[in-house]
């Protein structure tokens, strides 16, 4: 058995989980998320917990078992606490500023870059070089943060660019003069 997949998922107070066949919907104080469980895997409600089971030991069933349990657990965490991803802008003249719900970057290009948040995602800007992506869907928060980082990846010679908070950029020596 999968060590992760067989663990029961506790449902905290204030969270409502509904299972209708293969559809799992989680409703909490921060919002509502839903998931369609892949076909051989089954989710059941039992005494304030969600149990994820698999019918057999086929390779596909084993690989989906732990994944499904983790996805449901992430949804429960999302509707109670939410997810955040921090980004730092490093470089001379590189900055970010809030323009309503959108954000505008100056990243050394000839034009400013405006990013508008998708549904369920919000941005908070601290100073002019720190940005936080906030939302209840872990996958959406990570994807938006990755797309923002992709605007100007950190380069290895000076370390300029958009990086995750706490990310270590490997630096190269560059040319050596005579």
Name the descriptors:
three-stranded antiparallel beta sheet; ribosomal protein; four-stranded antiparallel beta sheet; single chain; Ribosomal_uL6-like; 20% helix; 178 residues; elongated; alpha+beta
Overview of this protein structure:
- This is Large ribosomal subunit protein uL6.
- This protein binds to the 23S rRNA, and is important in its secondary structure. It is located near the subunit interface in the base of the L7/L12 stalk, and near the tRNA binding site of the peptidyltransferase center.
- Part of the 50S ribosomal subunit.
- Keywords: Ribonucleoprotein, Ribosomal protein, RNA-binding, rRNA-binding.
- Belongs to the universal ribosomal protein uL6 family.
- By secondary structure, the protein is α+β, with helices and mostly antiparallel strands.
- The chain is built from two helices and 13 strands.
- The strands form four sheets. A four-stranded antiparallel sheet has the order 11-12-7-13, covered by helices on one side. Strands 1-6-5 form a three-stranded antiparallel sheet.
- A hairpin with a 6-residue loop joins β9 and β10.
- The radius of gyration is 21 Å and the shape is elongated.
- 21% of the residues are buried.
- The model has no long low-confidence stretch (mean pLDDT 93).
């Amino acid at each position: 058995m999968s060590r992760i997949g067989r663990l029961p998922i506790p449902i905290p107070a204030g969270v409502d989980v509904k299972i209708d066949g293969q559809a799992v919907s989680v409703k909490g104080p921060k919002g509502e998320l839903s998931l369609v469980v892949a076909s051989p895997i089954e989710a059941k409600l039992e005494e304030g917990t969600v149990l994820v089971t698999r019918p057999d030991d086929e390779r596909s069933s084993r690989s989906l078992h732990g994944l499904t349990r983790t996805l449901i657990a992430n949804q429960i965490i999302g509707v109670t606490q939410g997810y955040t991803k921090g980004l730092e802008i490093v470089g001379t003249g590189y900055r970010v500023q809030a323009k309503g719900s959108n954000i505008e970057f100056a990243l050394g290009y000839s034009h400013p870059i405006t990013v508008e948040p998708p549904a369920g995602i919000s941005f908070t800007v601290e100073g002019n070089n720190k940005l936080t992506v906030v939302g209840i869907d872990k996958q959406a928060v990570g994807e938006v943060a990755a797309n923002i980082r992709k605007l100007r990846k950190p380069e290895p010679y000076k370390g300029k660019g958009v990086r995750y908070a706490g990310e270590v950029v490997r630096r190269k020596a560059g040319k050596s003069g005579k």
